[in-house]
Each structure stands twice: as C-alpha cells, then as structure tokens.
Prior knowledge:
One of its GO terms (molecular function) is pentosyltransferase activity. The protein is mainly alpha-helical and about 575 residues long.
Amino acid sequence: MRKYGLLFLLIAIASFLRFSNLDNRGLFTDEKFTLLNANGIWVGGGNQIDIFNKPFFTPQDFWSPKNVEDYFEAIAHSDFGTHIVYNGLLHYWMELFGNSDYSIRFLSAVFSLLTVIVVYLFSLEVFKNHTVAFLSGFLLALDPLNIAQSHIARSYTLSFLLVLLATYYFLEIFRGNKKSRNFIIYAVLVGLCMLNHYLNFLVPLSHGLVFLFTKNKKHLWFGFISAAVFNVLLMLYWFNWGGGYLAMNFLKDKNEKHLKLAQLNINSPEAAVQLSTPALVTKKTIELVFDSSIFTQGLFLRLNSGLKNVAVTFAIFLLLLGAYYFKSKQKLYISLVVAAVVLLAVNHAIMEDIIIANCFYFVVFFALEFIFKRPEETSSQPQFILVAVSALMFILPILFVLNDALKNGHTTSLTHRYIGVASPFVAILLGFGINRFLKFSKLAFFLMIFVFLHQYQPVKFEIMSYFADKSNLNAWFEPARVPNPYATAAKSILEKYQESDTLYIPGGYQEFYVQVFAKEKVVNYNDAQYLNLYLPKKSNIPEKIDVNERDKVFLKKGNGEKLLIFDFEGTKYRY
C-alpha cells in the first residue's frame, strides 16, 4: 500500500507541473523544426522549392505526400540527423490527435511523467527501499529543467525514458535474466537512444565502463559484444547512408558560426554565445554541476558566481571529510572540526549556502563511497551497478560539454539542456546518497529538512520563471510569447477567406543567421511553411510569397483590396 501511495503522490506532483499551460506559449524555433521534420518537410523548403516557385501554390501542394527519403533528408538538413525516433512517433501521434501546440507538447509531457514513474519503480526494485525510491522520483519530478523540457515538442524527454529503460535491461541481464530476448531488447533500446540523439551515446558508454569493472561477467561477454556490434553497424549505416550523413559537416559549420558569433560578442558579457576563456568555462561548468538537481538549484548564483566562494565551500567539506576519516584520533578530529567552524564563521554572510553545498558534497560522497566499497554480496551487485552508472552519468555529460567548449572555442555547449540526459540518473544517485547520509548521523535528518526548506524558493522561482517565459534553463523571451501566432493567423484566414481571394505571405524577412552570415539576400520560406502547418491539407486557397514584404500576411481581395491578417513585427512574434 505504501508503495502505491508514494507513487500516486509523485504522479500527482509531476502531472500538475507537466500538463499545465502546455499551449499558453507559441512554438519556438526548435519546436517548429520538429513539426516540419515530423511531416517530412525540410526547414527552409529544400524539398518544396518547386511548389514555392509556382505563380501560386496551395495548402494541398504544401501537404503533398512525402516518402522515407524526405523524412531522412529533413532531419539531415536541419537537425544533423537526430530526433528521428521521436519525430516518427510524433508523426503518427499527430495523425491521431492533430498538431495543436497542446497536442504535440502533450507527448513530451507523457514521456516525462513515465520517466518519473520508472525512476521510482526502478529504484524501489533495486534498492528495496521506499525512501530512496521516493526521493529519486521527487528530485526528478520537481527538476526545473525536466519540467521545461516536458513542455517542448522535442525529443529530450523520450531520450530520458529510453536511456532509463536501456539501463533497466542492462541491469536485468546482470541479475541473471540473460535470455537472448533481453540482449535483443537492450541492443534495440540503445540503438533507439542513439538515433534519437547522439549525446545519448554516453549511456551505453557508462554501461561499458561499469561492465569492465563488474565481477562474474564471463558468461555475458558474447551478448554485450553482439549488442555493441549491432549498434556500431547501425550508426555506421546512419552516418553514411541514413539521415545522419550530413551530421559532421553540420556540426562543423555550426561550430564555425558560433565561434564567429562569440568573436563578435567579445564585448558583450551577457551574450548567449561567448568565447571560451578559462574563467568563464570554469564558472559555467560549476553552475551546471550545481543546477543538475533541485538540491543545489541556483546555488552558484547565490554564491555570487564566485570561484572563491565555491572554493570556501569545498575547503570546509575537505576539513569535515578529514574529520570523518580521523574520528578515532580525537585531537586531529577536534582540530579539523574547529577549523571548519572557524572558516564557516569567517564567511558567515553565505553560511546557509555553504551548509547546503556541504550537504550536497556529502550526499554525493556517500553515494560514491558505496561504489568504492565494492560490495561482495550478489544481492548488492545490482545496487553497485545502478549507482555506478548513475555516478558516471552525473560526470560524463559535464565532461563532454566542457571538452566541447574548450575544443571549439565557444560556450554554446555549456548550457543546461545539453546535460539533460543525466537528470534521471542524478536523481537516483542523490536519492541513494541522501538515504545513506541520513543513516550516518541524526543531525543529517535536520540538515536535509533545512536544505529542502531553503531550496523551496529557488526551485519555485525557477519553475515559475519558465512558465513566465523567463528561464535561463531553456528559453528566455522578452516580451513573453503569446499563443501560437501562426495558428492564430491561420484561423483568421479561414474565417475571412473568400473564393476570389489570394493569400500573400511575407518572404522578405531575414533570419538572424542569414543577416550575419549570408552574402546576399535570400527568400525566406519559413513563414509560408509554419503558416501552412495550420491550414487544412485539402485546402485550395491560392498563396503567393511576397519577397518584398517582411512581416505582414495579407488576403488580397478580387477587387485589389488588401486585408491585413497578421503582422509578425520582426522578431516580436517569430520565436
């Protein structure tokens, strides 16, 4: 009964935060890409040029049937070959439920909710502990980044679910269920993970590393090698003949452009893309570490983004850790504790945040300590494997984006969404660490109460910031977005259109990257594409792209009168 009571509570919390206000903001750029790609349409109209070059075209022309090659080429030319699994599911989802903003985002929210449920059930099954299971699910249910990503039509939440399920089968095989069926399911799940997004390769990498350090595995080599060979061949096909064949060129071009933007922004410290200086990269990396969980959400900013203050928190942790290891040597123990208290008193202005940081360090420490103790009992091996995989998934994504920033010279990768795949594992790691910390001392219970009470406001602020469209974790818009402008314009067109009318769509607007990098003015087909997504597939409304108009959508009447339908006003309504 307790098992399902806690699960019901988690479902209620997670559902409220994930299914609320799904359609109160229009789609932003990446979501529009998803909507086009899931319908086999290239962003920018690469496979629709013959349509747009007609004297007039119609929604029926726009929605002409697409083949598999169209779907592969669509993601190859706009999403460097990622998201294909999610796009395929979304395509059929839209066939059933339409393409309203609420509908397409609902799918992401469902995957996010399922991930919270799986984290809880998976943790309970492995650790046999309701506290660990509930804490893990709770940390993920309230994670602001996870909530934000559940509100966008993008593949991230599906990735989180897939990598967690792949880890479940990885562990299931070690628990003795080494039937060929489980190896096949594991191999397929890993393949789907990597097709969905390349950064998901960090999960099978963590599995491989843990496998190498796990005992009693001789009988598993063949199965896991077979799974690895299958996925190597799958990726070989994908990067050479599938939708990922342009991926490396796409990433190279993207990095070159972002480096140029960073060089242009050299005197703009608040710019989204900046040059990778040692100080800036260090600060952004530490912020990613702290913001990886609600446990320390916003802590780096409260420490004034100061490396000195972070060093103070860690110095106190090392002193207390020393006291933990030398508690049998009374004089040394007392000296270390006194030194920690003095350092805390000297920095009393940030005392509360130092305490939270140290609780975080000790929670992580107690989780990692379990790994290095390498429990010998067979019953503990699943716990060792899950904690080890979770620890690696806490570390590897941050190391990956750190390396990417240093290698490419700009900070684009040092953003929260690029480490999102770690979120289910971080929740499990910290849930397990908190439980071990609580067993360490009676004081730990009161410290955890203090942490969660203190973190209530920062976490609430971050969640509410997202709903207000002012979140640095995912998307920040000024002014805040309104409900989908393209859907609004399409509705107005259908209400006002008469048989003799012609729809004129702006084609003269120049996107930001075109303004910065294009050598000459190009026709913009994006407004025509996004608008036609919301017009009936069998409609014969005649449309024309006006290359001299930047922002306004008109219905031109038979008598020559132009009726204004919508004005995008530059970037104001183009998200």
